[in-house]
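Notebook entry, structure prediction.
Reason for the run: the old model in the group folder had no record of what sequence produced it. Starting over properly, with the input documented here first.
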Amino acid sequence: MRSNLGIAAFTIVNKQNLYITVNMKTLQCFKTVLILSMVVFLTSCLDDDDSKWPLNSVYTTIGEVEKESDDVYYIDSDKDNKFYVQNVDVLKNSNIEDGDRIYAEFIFVENNTNRPVNGSEIKVGFVYKVLTKDIKHLSVENEYEIGDDNIDVSNIWLSGDYLNLMYSFFTDSKTVHYLNMVTVDNPKKAEDGYLYLEFRHNANYDFNEVNVLYNGLVSFDVDDVIQADSGMKGFIIRVNRNKGERFYKVDLKDIGENVPELPDTPRPLAE
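New structure, fully documented this time:
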């Protein structure tokens, strides 16, 4: 298992209002499963030397790409680290642009002579462009479009200005699905200091029996809602899972860069 910059934690709220704290350890990398991204998936092949990287030397991060010049890019991570990318071609060949939010797996480069002292030089072996969305309010006008089809969530964590979710659903690998995070007029759960949200999925009538499982990662910008309520403690998130409705409690005190591993082959089948 690769090294990680943290372990995500959240609480499951069951239908009897009992809170069960769950520590979500770093996910295993499922090499044989085709993976779904909400946006264009970006990957790079490792050369022979890279393939010999020891697993315990590979790290993960999520953040925004910043461009200093044509040949100098760095990842401004959600934990305010600067990771200067040595193999910039990986980003360029994957059409990564200045300001894009990405998930990356990398190793540290020991020879850091060409970078500022306040940044670390890295070599990226895997890069994934993460879709970012704003929170919407569910209304009569948009309820049909937003939908409420089954979807599973394997990890939720707060980092930077974002609420991040690792999700999975079944698809024919051709149909575009739609994902949203919404506020509602009539919350099903309530607790002082916690904003109630619902993670919504519109499968776009993709219900074939031969569908396969896909996984992906999405980030929702929650900075405005946090700043608007000084007494906010966190979020309660409803998910319509394949095995039934589930509620997740995410605390602001756990905010950090708790990045789980992604499988290696996400695909652009949701937005």
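Summary: Helices lie at 89-93, 143-146, 223-227.
The old model has been moved to the deprecated folder.
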